[in-house]
Amino acid sequence: MIDNRQVKVVAFDADDTLWHNETFFREAEEKFAALFENFSPAHTVTRELLATEIKNLEWYGYGIKGFMLSMVETALRITHGAIKPEVIRHILDIGTDLLQKPVNVMPDAPLVLQTLQAHYKLVLATKGDLLDQERKLRKSGLEKYFHHIEIMSDKKEADYQKLLRHLDIRPAELLMVGNSVKSDVLPVLALGGQAIHIPYHITWAHEHAEPVIDQAGFVKAEKIRDLLPWL
Amino acid sequence: MIDNRQVKVVAFDADDTLWHNETFFREAEEKFAALFENFSPAHTVTRELLATEIKNLEWYGYGIKGFMLSMVETALRITHGAIKPEVIRHILDIGTDLLQKPVNVMPDAPLVLQTLQAHYKLVLATKGDLLDQERKLRKSGLEKYFHHIEIMSDKKEADYQKLLRHLDIRPAELLMVGNSVKSDVLPVLALGGQAIHIPYHITWAHEHAEPVIDQAGFVKAEKIRDLLPWL
User: Fold this and answer.
1) In this model, does residue A212 exceed pLDDT 70?
2) A209 lies in a domain?
3) How far off is chain A from B148, nearest CA to CA, in Å?
4) Do B41 and B140 share a domain, yes or no?
5) CATH of residue A199
6) Are the C-beta atoms of residues A205 and A188 closer than 8 Å to each other?
């Protein structure tokens, strides 16, 4: 149940909530793995890449630039230094290609945002690189509905605490909408905020968490349009 | 002249305004150039690196991760593909080393921030990677004086317009304090905001701009302590 009389700010996750993103990362991983088919099977390469990404999160945070650096580092490690320079060049190309992907907006997102904008302050609350998210927001055509972008270095309780302080609102006045139970739902509920989970068909291995079932301030929706009856 | 009766928010640039930063980048560039002393003289290597960085700004924005990727790209280009994998490893090490530098706060910064905090909302308005700036702010011990961090993808007029909208203030209510005339002063004044310039002894080649001399809403200070009489 969402208590919409309390809500002042609706914060939307961006990637895989408002537009498709994870599919592009999976494609990039496949292209990366294909560069090393003479060294290791694809699933080994992607497992090594994931391990590098998680190790580096503390230093790089989220986003494509960190992903690119982790690909380069993984490539050096799994080839034991026997890598050709042109392979490094290919890796950089995989990354810059990611930065130029089209933005495919989820069905009904414009309608839902337009409707909600009349009643709430809408913010985009996302991890990743600000410049990349700004570019995607511009390409999406959804920019006009949002008060501003909140870039979060992570989406843990402490990060949402900062967000609440930044927005000058109480926890129950925040409604977070996103596709990750781990990042968009659990920490918000733990602080006394409200959350709507809209699952996406692919989740990055590092984002997996068991969905919560029954808690005040929480509902699960199938599509972004299902938000409207709650708000 | 600063009209302090209008000011509501004092936004501080971070790097080279509150703490030393550019010296670490110059050291990193020298280490990078030294890797290629058999290929090119140091000034040629750093010129090539700067050209790569500027070309990539549109895609990477500011910060250490983009700097690392530009070093890798430059290395591949200037060696014409004849680079050893361990040199790429060294480049990544130069970058991760940068992420772990100590934070040396400018003299009097704590005193000045503590004094101003009683009268204004203080925000940190900076380009670069959020995670890195959060880490530096924490290390600096200055975190407690700031309402929040504003990460800006660039510091042009349009970016300050977003910042004003985000803060819900009029231009004259913003006072920006920073070391870059190009990034911290000119775009703010152009919008009708106020700015204090505190020069730093090193400026990145891409940040050079001729100081403005005489304009309402602007003063030049020698040290951060010189802010106090104006506020």
Assistant:
1) no
2) yes
3) 6
4) no
5) 3.40.50.1000
6) no
Locate B180 and state its tokens.
Answer: 């870059």
Task: Kindly state whether residues A202 and A175 are assigned to the same domain.
Answer: yes
Q: Domain tally for chain B?
A: 2
Of the given ranges (A166-175, B41-50, B62-71, B124-133), which has the lowest mean pLDDT? B124-133
User: Collapsing DSSP states into helix, strand and coil, what is residue B76?
Assistant: helix
Query: Nearest C-alpha of chain A: how many angstroms from B79?
Result: 10
Asked if residues A130 and A149 have their Cβ atoms less than 8 Å apart, the reply is yes
Q: Is residue B152 part of a domain?
A: yes
Over 70: is that where the pLDDT of A93 sits?
Answer: yes
Give every CB contact of residue B155 below 8 A, 6+ residues apart in sequence. Answer: B125, B127, B180, B182, B183, B184, B187
Per DSSP, B120 falls in state S
B118 and B64 in one domain? no
Q: Residue A179: name the closest of A154, A208, A159, A157 by CA.
A: A208
Compute, in degrees rounded to 10, the torsion defined by CA atoms A200, A202, A205, A211. Answer: 30
Give residue-wise pLDDT tens across range B156-187: 999 999 999 989 999 999 999 999 999 999 99
Residue among B65, B86, B96 whose CB faces A81 most closely: B86
- Its domain, for residue B111, covers 9-19+103-230
Contact by Cβ (8 Å): A229, A38: no
- Model pTM score: 0.91
Mutate to test the interface with A, among B57, B67, B69 (most CBs of A within 10 A): B69
